[in-house]
Amino acid sequence: MAQSQTSIEGDILLQLSYSAAKTFVANYYTDLQAARTKLKGYYAPTASISWNGNDLSGGAADVEKLHTEMPVATYEVQCFDAQPLTPNGKGQCSILLTTNGYVKFGNEKDAPSRGFSETITLEPDESTPVKFLISTQSTRFVF
């Protein structure tokens, strides 16, 4: 039995979402650990961010402040999932990304690890079609 066109398109969107998310996760968490000055470039100017239940409404400016004031951290992403959202009519779609893993704050070897979970919506960057920007992000630490 042949696959329907809609099913094939859905499979392609799933593969593209996974591929984009995999690249994003590798780059974002590397920069979060080692190059925080680059993080502002990951966010849409009007990004909506929730950090452990605290809403940050300043968009990219709040992101920069949050990440410069946060102590040194080591992130270990255990898993992620990416799902395509409704296409925008331009051949692009947003991606719903969830990540889970562990984070250690500080440089101490014996610093305790905390679990974390993030839900991120990635939207296509209008200026660069193959780049995605964070439009919403909700981060929670698991205690």
TrEMBL record:
<dbReference type="Pfam" id="PF02136">
    <property type="entry name" value="NTF2"/>
</dbReference>
<dbReference type="InterPro" id="IPR002075">
    <property type="entry name" value="NTF2_dom"/>
</dbReference>
<dbReference type="InterPro" id="IPR032710">
    <property type="entry name" value="NTF2-like_dom_sf"/>
</dbReference>
<keyword id="KW-0539">Nucleus</keyword>
<dbReference type="GO" id="GO:0015031">
    <property type="term" value="P:protein transport"/>
</dbReference>
<keyword id="KW-0653">Protein transport</keyword>
<dbReference type="InterPro" id="IPR045875">
    <property type="entry name" value="NTF2"/>
</dbReference>
<comment type="function">
    <text>Has a role in nuclear-cytoplasmic transport of proteins and mRNAs.</text>
</comment>
<feature type="domain" description="NTF2">
    <location>
        <begin position="20"/>
        <end position="141"/>
    </location>
</feature>
<dbReference type="GO" id="GO:0005634">
    <property type="term" value="C:nucleus"/>
</dbReference>
<dbReference type="InterPro" id="IPR018222">
    <property type="entry name" value="Nuclear_transport_factor_2_euk"/>
</dbReference>
<dbReference type="GO" id="GO:0005737">
    <property type="term" value="C:cytoplasm"/>
</dbReference>
<keyword id="KW-0813">Transport</keyword>
<dbReference type="GO" id="GO:0006913">
    <property type="term" value="P:nucleocytoplasmic transport"/>
</dbReference>
<protein>
    <recommendedName>
        <fullName>NTF2-related export protein</fullName>
    </recommendedName>
</protein>
<keyword id="KW-0963">Cytoplasm</keyword>
<dbReference type="GO" id="GO:0051028">
    <property type="term" value="P:mRNA transport"/>
</dbReference>
